Fold this sequence. Notes:
Immunoglobulin-like, 17 helices, globular, homodimer, ten-stranded antiparallel sheet, alpha+beta, 4 domains
Amino acid sequence: MQTMAANTVSLQQVRIQDAFWSKYETLIRDTVLPYQWKALNDELPDTEPSYAIHNFQVAAGLKEGEFGGMVFQDSDLAKWLEAVAYSLATHPDAALEQLADEAIDLIVRAQQPDGYLNTYFTIKEPDKRWTNIQDCHELYCAGHMMEAAVAYYQATGKRALLDAMCKFADYIDTVFGPEAGKIQGYPGHQEIELALVKLYHVTGETRYLQLSAYFINQRGQSPSFFIEEWTQRGGVSHWSKGPTPKPDLKYNQSHLPVREQSEAVGHAVRAVYMYTAMADLARLTGDQSLLDACRRLWDDISKRQMYITGGIGSTHHGEAFSFAYDLPNDTVYAETCASVGLIFFAFRMLQMEAKREYADVIERALYNLIIGSMTLDGQRYFYVNPLEVWPEASEKNPGRRHVRPVRQKWFGCSCCPPNLARLIASLGQYIYTVDKRTLYTHLFIGSEIRATLDDVEVHLKQTSLLPWDGQVQFTLSLAAPKCFALAWRIPGWCANAQLQVNGEAYPLDGQLQNGYVIIDRVWQNGDRIELNFPMTAQLIQANPQIRADAGKVAIQRGPLVYCFEEADNGDLIAALALSRKAELQARFDASVLGGTVVIEGEGWREDVSAWHDELYRPITQQPKPVHIRAIPYHLWGNRGSGEMAVWLPVQ
Amino acid sequence: MQTMAANTVSLQQVRIQDAFWSKYETLIRDTVLPYQWKALNDELPDTEPSYAIHNFQVAAGLKEGEFGGMVFQDSDLAKWLEAVAYSLATHPDAALEQLADEAIDLIVRAQQPDGYLNTYFTIKEPDKRWTNIQDCHELYCAGHMMEAAVAYYQATGKRALLDAMCKFADYIDTVFGPEAGKIQGYPGHQEIELALVKLYHVTGETRYLQLSAYFINQRGQSPSFFIEEWTQRGGVSHWSKGPTPKPDLKYNQSHLPVREQSEAVGHAVRAVYMYTAMADLARLTGDQSLLDACRRLWDDISKRQMYITGGIGSTHHGEAFSFAYDLPNDTVYAETCASVGLIFFAFRMLQMEAKREYADVIERALYNLIIGSMTLDGQRYFYVNPLEVWPEASEKNPGRRHVRPVRQKWFGCSCCPPNLARLIASLGQYIYTVDKRTLYTHLFIGSEIRATLDDVEVHLKQTSLLPWDGQVQFTLSLAAPKCFALAWRIPGWCANAQLQVNGEAYPLDGQLQNGYVIIDRVWQNGDRIELNFPMTAQLIQANPQIRADAGKVAIQRGPLVYCFEEADNGDLIAALALSRKAELQARFDASVLGGTVVIEGEGWREDVSAWHDELYRPITQQPKPVHIRAIPYHLWGNRGSGEMAVWLPVQ
């Protein structure tokens, strides 16, 4: 297997200082984490209680009460704790750390003597552990708590949760596996596979890696574990209680052994979490067949099943992928968690192969769907991230009811908000990777990195004007001149990038390797590298196979996808159209949504005032010319409920 | 109330002889009725059994067995029998009549001594009559059997079923009503209301009219009958058995008293059957408030919630209306039965007010959705009638699974095929109406009518080239010159109609009354009236409020809506576009689908071969010019499974 097998850099190695992203980091720290802590403690007014902390208190014997919320409610606290850990890694905060320590203390108290941890089963069905692995998320919750434990240990050096989770993992290892007497099964919701890899990474315990590989390798083997389990429990489901049809194995990607899978199917979050673990295992074990499967599944998502915003999952039925080129904008799902997982998967692929396409997708999802899933004030969230909204349809057409025109305070199933928090809090991990003697820059986010290349300490400082402008500068600090490689991604959206080293043009024509410019030379302290990615507002067309976008265009400028909102263009956004030769002006407007680049130009608008009591009539008039304004997609829905569209008809 | 209150002409007064429609009449007679009889007798190979005849045999004590099929399965036989009656009225057929007599004998045997008739309750829950009126369709099945009884009596003069149904109606009248001890309720699925009006019409029994009015007037009063019934039966439903949420009263239009309703909501078939009865009652009782409600509901459907094909019902959730201008083409429902009911409603409105808009909708639904719901061979049917089909999406996107790309042999819920049969078999009823001294022609279907105007026998013969050409001629026969009025609808789709009386031009400018030309004069034997409706293929635009059609056009020529099929244009129909100034040629092609007018011209096609592994990229090329061909919508899906679209992007 010829791959780069680059390392993730630890969060402590990277410090973000960026005009655009530092705002989001701060928002997470100052607003989102405290807000979500309140949510987990059922302290948000007029909001469905979470019960997350409550459940741990009851399970720990500190409180009387019933279990509340979803069977996987524990994972919300785990993801919050993981986000806290990332934040502490870059911005120590004694008060926050104490809060986390107390939460960890509570978690550890809720752990059972044998290592088992799950408040649902401990409180509600203590003798039913591992009897409905398909539905009941025990391994999923375990995985999230392991991720939190690893992150917290890495951030603080504190082992309490890590030790507890090792104990849990050791216990799980006695329950699952190929040996007689163990359950030859695997999770109903994949997650622990990637978590066990992280646990292996910090502990060096190969049993964790082997257990992860077992779950991945066993998945989809015949006869089906889930069908046998379903039969054994009498054909009922956790969700309906009554009889349920035979499990749809595609839903949780257990329809085939993973190495035989080529199409992304089923529940999108389960899928990308699994692909992430597959990529981890391919990298760590050098398993070519696993890498091949990862590449096929990557291609199927990124080349056939991904929205322009970086969203995935075309249908709310099962929160799932549907099939190639089926990307409806109005009935879309595009769950926030799914794009978080897509970034995980893309980054694992990037660790193996420095190909631009992986980082392009990370950037696309980050700058559009991910930050768009939260209000500017950090206190409201989308679960579903549509590309077209008609608020009345969301209310009155049941097939579009899952599409909310405004972000919500919290959710009964609130997986997305803490997932978003842990991703943004760990953003520093995604900017760079380090191969033995190469430092790759994947994202253009102002930051500093300290890395070791061929035993030499390197300090690289990046300043960036993205996403508003394409100027990026790097300054290198190192003790003595040294030969090594620096590599930069040239984004897929930029056709005419320029690079200068110490003020001298460095031609890029024919120089790109998989979309990266790699400069391997003797570098000196103080070397300056300037990149320029000229940005224009471009009309983007979708592959004609995407029926939903036929005859339409979207606007993209740099990494940002734009959209048209009622707040700027009046209602009936669908009556707007763009000219194929539209001249679009981009300008920064400090008064709009906290300051953003708006795109304006001449478009067309059907004159609805010329229509009265008719539904259909012969085409007569041209639409009227009209001034149109687009805003970045990630800012939509911050000015009340209204119509929105990413794709508009083109004339 | 100033209305025309025109009479329906009886089927015996009209004989259709039409190049286009006689084919369908014959198909119903020779193929559809025998085919459906086989279906009702469970004799179709490889098809889910109907159980309809079986259930009557069991209920009649002629056979041992269980009840099979839906709780409303009886209605399939009733609708088939009604269709047979209409066929016998115009085309006597001793063998068919004997078959019907035997079926009627079976039905009568299944009737209970007190008049009750319902095979589900008789076989399965004999002591549960009238305990779940919301779900269990007892009154619905009763209504359909009454309609069959009336039609059979009118066609053959035989009273066996009519008497049985009068007995049933008498019994129902003892069960429902305002008096103490009766149920103050109304049907879960409206139907009996319009049937009781028919029963009143042939028997003169005013109790039937009063019972119909009771059901209509009681509906939606507070407290809600259905909520009380649901509480009394312990909050369960017939469908789920388990606990169900409180009934959604909009679903069956019992959310408001009918006179306060202004929006068409809920299950579309229930709605239009109810509106039909409301119009009947408004006409027969002169109830202005009921007429006002009918007009509002008509406007809401025909001006805000109707597809260009005459389909209604925008969502498969509850087979229901959604709201104004929400007319998605891909996730559409547009059930065949709903358009059948829409024609009923439109015709009742037309009986009160000779306004073109009613007949325009009847024509639109008939020529497009109705005949399009059946294969050319009469043996396969659509339940859902989409305006856009992508077979792979129907298979793989759960939100489009209800949209079938090919017509089906039969259905578990097989309401549509016999509904279609009874409508086409009674087509003669919809062509003309007679006011005291005015004979209205609403549809241009070759036929003869014998009517009495002011005590004078009039015979009018119509020949028509529709829908292929707009030439229509009328010849009048009468014993002596006489002053009366003849009226013709000038279709909404024709802007430049011409009329000649005995070869002399009759100017139409400023002469139309609500879209009708009315010539009131002394008519003579042999008078000839020629109408010409020039037809061109027109690009049709939808009201800009219909978001789903934004930036798109459809093609219509005369009453026919056209569509683009994969069989003519290759796959990826969505990659086609039309020019705003497209020159479209219409020509009759005898080789296509049994002979039809195809429409051809130059369009555009996105060059999919220029796309490979990309989902999105800057717009570059113009699409390629391409020869396109459209066929009438009603002929789609007769050449195997493939993509289809009515609306295409316009450049």
